[in-house]
Amino acid sequence: MTKKLEMWPPSVIESVCEVLGDTGRGLTGTEIGRLLERLDVPDIDPSASKRHRLANALITQQQRQQASNCVVGFIVEAMQPALHFENPTRRQLLQDRLTERLSLMGLRVRDDGKVGTAPRATTLDEAARLAGRLQTELVRRATHPEVLRYCEEELVRQSVFHAVFEATKGLAERLRQLSGAHGIDGAELVEHCFGAKGGRVLRINAYSTKSEVSEHNGFANLLRGIFGTFRNPPAHAPRATDEWAITEPDALDLFSMLSYAHRRLDRRS
Asked: Can you give the residue range of the structural domain that contains 164?
């Protein structure tokens, strides 16, 4: 007879389902339906969003059985390596994000897909530290999606060097898309977008007062500094050398700056 596992708080189950049912990075609706059927868990709300559909099914089944076996079973089935042959990056990301949530229960998702024990986290900071992934920390910081878009694979692989390089390149690419400029980069691209010579193709404000002009020019200088400090050096220095190195705390600070830059571009005039 299968041992009954301790019931989980609904908030933890909902958090797990938020990861598994994430619109861009989680399981598909078809996958969720198939796994629920395989585990004999009634799909009581199939028309709801993926995360709510899954949470409603698992919370109801847990209450019916007075045990969390259905929740653990679904995680194990969802994280089987064979399910992710076509997208191993998705599996790694799900494993990292689930491990962060499960650390609050003293659990983790192992590389073989099974749920095992782990040090128990009591705060969100501890959960991020125990998960031990850049991606986890950046999600917790609400980093702008455009930052993550260009370096997600590097973050999953814990490649700080390449994640910084790709995220900074991503900012340049967004400037090119917004301005229609092609074939230029770095300071030249910033001058084209924000400088007088380029006719100030992009503006972050109305550019009508002394304060607004100062803010506009300061933002342009910030972008020049980012490209000069973080875009150009790694383009010429191999990761294996000490000629250009960046620590994880410095990388997180850079991602915050890039996130700010993207948000200012979101609010451009």
From this structure: 146-266
